[in-house]
Design a protein that fits this description.
By secondary structure, this protein is an alpha+beta fold. Helix content is 31%, strand content 26%. The protein has five helices and 13 strands. Helix 3 packs across helix 4 (113-125).
Length: 277
């Protein structure tokens, strides 16, 4: 049986192409089954090699679905880098906003080790150059018992150095009717008509928004000082804006009560010990 199969593979065949009318022979091929198989295999290999070369070294490869051009791959890479940068900025802004909300809305909570790491990264990367002691904006751990400063406390222990940067002016320009301590710290200032609420010193507005019926503005000053303003009038500034001392933050056409807070190195202090109203 094996010899018969081997003999059949070696048998010679002839393929003839002839004219159908005259039966004249036009083309003829002589082959054996083995030679025909070898010819087909070699032809397939050559076709595969040629196709690979065309795809690898010619622009035709760009027409393959999902392959894309070199320019498109570079654009995708650049967009990926931008998305990563935006995610980093978003996490930093979220950490800052979380700390700002603690000041503005009193939403204090215990930070985990991961939050502290994020805060330290924000300290390192932000342009406002926050310090590690600036727990006001980045790592707030203020207890309610430390908010109010006792009246008999030595003023020299809490008053900052009298430098040009830490000197502060009155936040109110206009007639002040009454100043009284607020329940949760800070002071309430009753103002007359057309009173202007101003920044007590140069700094950067880190929060400016409306909460309920009041507008809230938080300004970060040099020497780790933050001033907070709550008033029913509309704001004339926006978050991220740099302000000068005595720059107007809000103007009211009628009498209003302005709640003012002053924070020094993460602790709320009595504004009347720092500012002459």
């Amino acid at each position: 049986m094996a010899n018969s199969w081997g003999d059949k593979l070696k048998d010679k065949y002839r393929l003839v192409i002839s004219d159908s009318e005259s039966f004249e022979e036009r083309i003829s091929f002589r082959f054996t089954p083995i030679s025909l198989a070898v010819t087909l295999i070699l032809s397939m290999l050559v076709l595969v090699v040629l196709t690979s070369i065309i795809i690898a070294f010619t622009p035709l490869r760009e027409y393959i679905p999902g392959y894309g051009s070199a320019k498109e791959r570079n654009q995708i890479w650049m967009l990926t880098q931008k998305v990563d940068s935006l995610e980093t900025i978003y996490r930093q802004n979220a950490a800052i906003e979380k700390s700002i909300r603690a000041i503005v809305l009193g939403e204090y909570e215990q930070m985990s080790a991961d939050d502290d790491t994020i805060s330290q990264n924000v300290i390192k990367d932000t342009m406002m150059l926050f310090t590690k002691m600036d727990s006001i904006l980045l790592n707030i751990k203020v207890h309610n018992g430390n908010r109010n400063v006792a009246k008999n406390e030595d003023i020299h222990k809490i008053k900052p150095q009298a430098t040009a940067r830490s000197y502060m002016l009155s936040p109110i320009v206009g007639r002040i009717q009454q100043i009284e301590p607020a329940v949760n710290g800070g002071i309430n200032i009753q103002c007359g008509n057309l009173c202007k609420v101003c920044a007590v010193n140069a700094g950067t507005i880190v929060y400016a928004d409306i909460s309920g019926s009041n507008s809230i503005c938080v300004v970060h000053h040099p020497d780790d000082i933050v001033s907070v303003y709550r008033m029913p009038s509309r704001l004339s500034v926006a978050a991220g804006q740099a302000v000068k001392a005595k720059q107007v933050l809000s103007v009211s056409d009628e009498e209003q009560v302005v709640h003012f807070e002053l924070w020094v190195k993460g602790n709320m202090v009595d504004p009347e010990r720092y500012i002459m109203f």
